[in-house]
Amino acid sequence: MVAYAGGNIEVALSSLFLNPITTLFGVRQILVRFVVFYTMAMGIGLALKAGLWNIGAQGQLIMGMVMVFVAYDYMKFLPWPVLYLTMIVSAVIGGLLWIVVPTVLRVRFGANEIVVTLLLNVIAINFGYYMLNGPINSASNLGYPTTVTLPGQFRIPDIIGNFPMTYAVPLTIVIGLMLYFLVERTSFRVKANTVGESPETARYAGISITRVSVITMLASGALAGLAGATYQMGFQYHIDAGVFVYNLGFIAVIAALVGRKHMIGIGIASLFFGYITIGAESMVTQTNVPTSVVFAMEGVMMVGILLGTYLGERRNV
After folding, report:
1. How far, in Å, CA of 53 to CA of 96, rounded?
2. Which end of the chain is more exposed for a tag (fewer CB within 10 A), N or C?
3. pTM for the complete prediction?
4. Alpha-helical segments (H) within 75-161
C-alpha cells in the first residue's frame, strides 16, 4: 500500500517500527494510546464474553471527553480535589449513559446492538461538534472551535519528572488486573461465557441473561467514558474538531478481538496497537503518503482478524 501510494518502503518500515521507540516522546505516545485502547478494549472484551458487540466505544469515548469539559466549565465553584474527581466521574457517566439506549433495545426488544451502537457513533460525533461550537467553546481567536486548555492541576501528572509515563498507566493496569480476577477467576466468568455461548443453557441453569447483558454493556460504556477522561486529562488537555475523527474506538475493538476476550491478552494487544498506530502516524509524516493509508492498514487488520477468528471457531481452535 505504501509503495502504491508512492512512498519509500525502507523509510516507511524504519518509521513504522523504529521511530516510536527511539525517543521518549514516542514512548510516551505509545503509552497514551495503550491506556486509551486498553481501557476501552477491556469493556468491549467484557461484552464479547456475554455474546454482545459494543461497536460504539468511539461514541462513548467522545461523550467521556465532552463531559470532562462540561464538568470543568460548569462546576468551577467546587473545590479543586472535588472538581478533579467530578470531571472523571462525569466522563464515566457520559460513556455509561451513551450505551443505555442500545442496552435497553437489546434486552427488551432484541434489537441488534451492533447496528445501534455503530449508529450512535455518528450521533456522538455530531453532538461533540455541537458542544464544541457552543456550550464548551472557549471563544478563542484561533480560527477554529476549541475548548479551553486544562490547567496543570487538572491534568494527570507524570510519575517522575520527564519520565514518559503518567499515573494513568499503572492505574489502567490495576483496573485490568481487577477485571482479570473478576472475569476470569470468579463465577461471573461462567455466567458470562454461558450467556454468550449458549443462551438456552443459561436459561436452563437459572442464569439471568438480562442481568448479565446489562452489567457487561453498562460496564463497557463506562470504561469507554473513562478512556475519554484519561485521554483528555492525561495527554490532549483540550478538544478540537480533529479529535472526533480519530478511530481510537474501532482500534480498541480489534485489540479486544486479538486478545481473545482475555483481560491480560487484551492488555498485550492494546500495547501492540499503541506501538503500531504511533509508528503508522510517523510513517505518514516521513514518507508523505496519504493518511488514508493508515486507515487502510487498520481495515486490513480488522478483516484479517475477523477472518482468522471465524476460521478458528470453525476448527475449534
Report:
1. 15
2. C
3. 0.92
4. 80-98, 100-109, 113-133
